[in-house]
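Reading a protein record of the kind used here takes only a little practice. Think of the row as the fold of the chain written in a discrete alphabet. A record is reproduced here so that you can trace the correspondence yourselves:
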Amino acid sequence: MSKDFILPDIGEGIVECEIVEWLVAEGDEVKEDQPVVEVMTDKAMVEIPAKDDGIVEKLYYQKGDIAKVHEPLFAIKPADGSSDEAPAKEKDSAPAKKEEPKTEEKQTSTDGDTTDFILPDIGEGIVECEIVEWLVSEGDEVKEDQPVVEVMTDKATVEIPAKDDGTVVKLYHKKGDIAEVHKPLFALKPVGGVQESGSNAPQSHVDPDAKTSPSDSKAEAEPPAKARQGKAIASPAVRRLARESDINIAEVPGSGKKGRVLKKDIEAFKSGEQKSAASSDSQQPQKAAATSGGTRTEAIRGVKAAMAKQMMSSVSTIPHFTYADEFDVTDLIALREKLKEQYKEKGIRLTVMPFFIKALSLALKEFPVMNAQVNEDCTEITYFDDHNIGMAVDTKIGLLVPNVKQVQNKSIIDVANEVTRLTQASREGKLPQADMKGGTISISNIGVIGGTVATPIINKPEAAIVALGKVQELPRFDANGNVVARKIMTVSWSGDHRIIDGGTIARFNKLWQEYLEDPTSMLVNMV
């Protein structure tokens, strides 16, 4: 007896994902918690594990297909032979589950030929969203699974697809409006009309035959035409790949179901475009000059859109002030160089960041207000025992700020291992949401790129953030008045002036500086 594995929630605001790679085949045996499939969302790559031991009987999707959350992903025959009550009921219940959302999401309007599309749940705790862009207009024909509107929640930007083929009759909201979950989003006139019961059903089947037979070829020709207008059907990951490759996805022919554009289509188009560009350049070298002066406009979506909203909220609600100072990190770098090779043999990548994070935690013990947060009305302040120190990571999809949890209980080696894990996961797009939540203070290492001084924006609702500048070898006077070369780094703080004053951040920074300039004092104070 087999049972369906239902795709669970894989992130707030995530309603669908792309099948990147099946890690098993039909007939394979799997164990509980064994990764079965790798999927991609707007935010990250995620491996979905099996829930039980058993044999994979059927994979419901192929590589490149789009899977929906809360719908069957694959069928498994459990090792213990258990299943849902009966296979027949299992098969019947799947369509029933698919029918129920449709009855909720499509309500017959006052016009008997149209139905209202009800905005579904788009994430845990999400009750409303902003209309970012309508991808269709009133009177446009749409196909099933074609993106109709782009909405933005507090967590992410999401495209809402059509559930049926039909004509858009009315858009209930304008760009910039706030739409509520479980309320009508737009009205659609289905291709086959609204089927009710009784004798109306046969008529609705007859009419489509009469209407579509002369226009079948037209219907077949419409998707490419719409694609040329920027309405190609593709997953967010494929759209992002197209943008990164400077390809207009509307011009890419889709080989997937219902004309969906897949990753391989982008790659094929890219290689073909490059070949044609090379040949045209060799034949007509003067055409390159004709492209000068052009512009390109891209929508801000996904992680970048979430970051933009978060930073705007932080700057507009938190009174920032900046404090900067110079650190002499000569001795710290010498200690790190001494230990680096020793720990490299043990598989530990020891950079200077773990020292900065651990020293920051030691200083937070003396200044708990730096590890605190205030509520929106600034009527209460919450102090955190855990030092969950975030570090900004520059990735292809935007800036991510994972945090090392409970640094106060970790050694420098423990912190180093966490820094390595979080950095790799962020850059591979496999960062769990749990690593992004619960931060209490953040570090941004701009010096890796080359900056010296910054005015960082606080990662709300935290109360402070520090930017590390690049290390420069500069002349300084020693105790005897001699000019010596020292390794100098500038640190730049931004603090929430509602709870942190200049004197507090200066004293806190001085203690942090002492730990870093004299690493032995840091080791003495470690528990």
